[in-house]
Amino acid sequence: MRASAAERGYDAEWSQFANNYRRENPLCSLCLIAGITRAAQAVDHIVKLRLAPHRKYDLSNLQALCRECHAGKTAKGQ
C-alpha cells in the first residue's frame, strides 16, 4: 500500500509552494511539447522525491503536468 502524501513529504508547505508554482506555470509541459494546450493540476518531480529528497524545491527538477500526464508518468513508475 502506498504511503500517504504527508508521509511521502507532501506537507502544507509543499502545497503552498505547488500552488504558487502552478500559478507561474499554468500549462502542462508534456502537453505543450505535443502541441496541446491543457491546464496543469500537478507539480511533478522529474526525479522522484523519494530518490532525491534534497531536490524537493529544486525548480530544475519540477514540471507542471495535467492529471492525465501525471497519472501516466506515475503508472510507468517514472
Task: Please tell me about this protein's structure.
It is a single chain. The chain has one domain (12-75). By secondary structure, it is of the alpha+beta class. The protein has helices spanning 12-24, 29-33, 67-75, and strands at residues 42-45, 62-65. Strands 1-2 form a two-stranded antiparallel ribbon. Helices cover 35% and strands 10% of the residues. The protein is globular, with a radius of gyration of 12 Å.
Which structural traits does this protein have?
alpha+beta, two-stranded antiparallel ribbon
Strand element count: 2
Distance between the termini: 18 Å
> Globular, elongated, flat, extended or rod-shaped: what is the shape?
globular
Q: In percent, how much strand structure appears in the residues?
A: 5-15%
Strand order of the largest sheet: 1-2
> By helix and strand content, what is the structural category?
alpha+beta
The radius of gyration computed from the alpha-carbon positions, rounded to a whole number of angstroms, is 12 Å
Largest sheet: 2 strands, antiparallel
Low-confidence stretches: none
List the helices and strands and how they pair.
Layout: H1 12-24, H2 29-33, E1 42-45, E2 62-65, H3 67-75
Antiparallel strand pairs: 1-2
Brief sketch in words of this structure:
The protein is built from three helices and two strands, in the order ααββα. It is of the alpha+beta class and 78 residues long. A two-stranded antiparallel sheet has the order 1-2.
